[in-house]
Amino acid sequence: MSSECLFCKIAGRSIPADVVAETDNALAFRDINPQAPTHVLVIPRQHVESLEEVDDPQMMGELVTLSRMIASREGLENGWRWVTNVGSDGGQSVFHLHFHLLGGRRMTWPPG
Ligand code: 5GP
Ligand code: ZN
Asked: Which pTM value belongs to this model?
């Protein structure tokens, strides 16, 4: 837990969020500024800054499994997108690892 980290505070429930699913090691909540009808952020409870710092394949597996479960529950049978921004050039603004789960509309490519 990093005391200054927004997503650690959300994981610790000291800042409210619209939580859609949780496991022992992961939490999923709706993005405050949604970019699609479904826009959920899937995070590990543990403070990991970005994909650059991931060294636990089991944790990654849990994030994948939880994301697929949410996509199914949200009715995204036509597809969805899973994105993580890494560092400043990647467009990361919150430095606690999170995967954007986006769906409910046709996505475009390339991203901006
Ligand atoms: P990034 O830009 O780091 O890839 O994504 C950060 C995401 O966190 C953004 O999509 C932003 O809307 C979302 N966000 C920022 N602050 C909050 C907050 O306090 N609550 C929630 N639910 N989402 C937030
Ligand atoms: Zn954190």
From this structure: 0.98
In one-letter notation, the amino acid at residue 1 is: M
- Alpha-carbon span 91 to 104, nearest angstrom: 23
| 1 has a pLDDT exceeding 70 | no
Q: Is the CB of 27 under 6 A from ligand 1?
A: no
pLDDT digits (tens, 9 = 90+) for 33-81: 999 999 999 999 999 999 999 999 999 999 999 999 999 999 999 999 9
**Nearest ligand, CA of residue 33?**
1
Cβ–ligand 1 distance for 88 under 6 Å, the answer: no
Q: Which residues of 21-47 are buried (b: 16+ CB within 10 A; e: fewer)?
A: eeeeebbbbebeeeebebbbbbbbbeb
Nearest ligand to residue 53 Cα: 2
